[in-house]
Design goal:
Elements lengths: L10 E2 L2 E5 L4 H14 L3 E7 H7 L7 E7 L1 H10 L9 E7 L5 E6 L1 H7 L11 H11 L2
Antiparallel strand pairs: 1-2, 2-6, 3-4, 4-5, 5-6
Length: about 140
């Protein structure tokens, strides 16, 4: 089970988690609004729990947003094409056993480290991380 070790979340193997102060639906919809209102593009929405339900399976609510900004991602992809495995960025939203909503994503440092780019390139991904953190703190 995820641990909420601080109000901003704590990285664990390149993943950072934030407990939301909203329920699942408000968290997912609000996060989408926070992302688009800052000029980022939502490339895809994946409804894991909805897909499971269509197959006769059950699971707690879980969805993913795939989002980004080509102005930030393209230069990184030009430096190292394999970063496309981690770009666009992903934000996972789920509901735990207690009904709390969570947001998780890969840290910028993990992404650029995984693809052996300099640590200074993480700053190109930091604005997206700030959006997730600011939303989770509301």
């Amino acid at each position: 089970m995820p641990q909420d070790v601080s109000s901003l979340g704590a990285p664990h193997f390149g993943v950072i988690r934030f407990r939301s102060s909203f329920d699942f639906a408000k968290t997912f919809d609000g996060l989408e609004e926070a992302i688009t209102s800052r000029g980022l593009t939502i490339f895809a929405r994946i409804d894991f729990s909805g897909d499971a339900e269509r197959e006769g399976l059950s699971m707690r609510p879980e969805k993913m947003l795939i989002f980004g900004n080509p102005k930030s991602g393209t230069p990184l992809m030009k430096m190292e094409p394999t970063i496309g495995l981690d770009l666009p960025l992903k934000a996972l939203v789920w509901e735990d056993e207690q009904g709390d909503a969570w947001i998780a994503c890969n840290t910028p440092e993990y992404i650029v480290g995984r693809h052996e780019l300099g640590p200074e390139t993480a700053s190109q991904l930091a604005p997206a991380m700030a959006i997730l953190q600011q939303f989770a703190r509301k």
